[in-house]
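Blinded run. Sample ID left blank on purpose so nobody reads anything into the name before looking at the predicted structure. Input follows.
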Amino acid sequence: MQAATIIPTPSLTAMSNNLINYDRLQQHQDELKAQWNDAKKPFHYLVYDNFLTPEAAEQLLAAYPDVTTGNWDGTTYINQKNKFALTKFGAEHPLLQKAFDELNSEKFLHFVEGVTGIPNLIGDDELFGGGLHQSVTGAFLDVHVDFNYHQTTRHHRRMNAIVYMNKDWQKDYNGYLELWDMKTKKQLENIAPLFNRCVIFETNEVSYHGHPKPLAAPGGLTRKSMAVYYYTTERPAHEIAGEHNTVYVNTEGTGGLLKNLKSGLKAAVERVKK
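Blinded prediction complete.
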């Protein structure tokens, strides 16, 4: 596990600038629209590199707290293991708070609405299910569709945005984001969680995704990402389904069943200890 590092607080002048590279986003807006609207996809998504300004990306990586410090939630579930989440940053992490404020800002939501055609998007300051994520050796998150209503606001969940923060990530480390068409049982994408890469995809009843292969990064290297979820007060009638929690599927056959048995036992031991 990486040693904790003391990070100096960025100056107020530096923090007043946008962390998101809006100039570059505007230049690639048509390309992003084309990705999103690809008719061959069962659900909409896009992948975009160099999302943050270079300076902001480096500062955020430097500010990323070690998983052994702070109030990380690392609860194990049958379909999720060794994945930690942090949603409260406090005064000691102002740059991280600024990043999530910007991802939930009217300015960024307006840009996303223009690319996706989904109007009246609402951010989530609560970061329910989202926030700063960090996965350690052996971590996985099985392929799934997400819960479809916010627990507090009751708004419809419409979209995920994930920014990856991993330099020099290798394929044999696993941790790739898999997108699936479960109607045909085919994998659509196997997306490397590369440094300063943003992935945005709609959330509905067919947007299956996850990183089910256990993390095998060396030397305590962790898989880092920032996740925000966007909502609307309404959604098209043909997309509305009964309320449900996260719905998992097994894409790995017998190996997946054995993996889930082990994580289920670990989860049971955790509950007993608590």
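Unblinding after everyone has recorded impressions. The beta strands are 45-49, 80-86, 131-145, 156-164, 177-181, 186-191, 197-202, 208-211, 223-232, 247-248.
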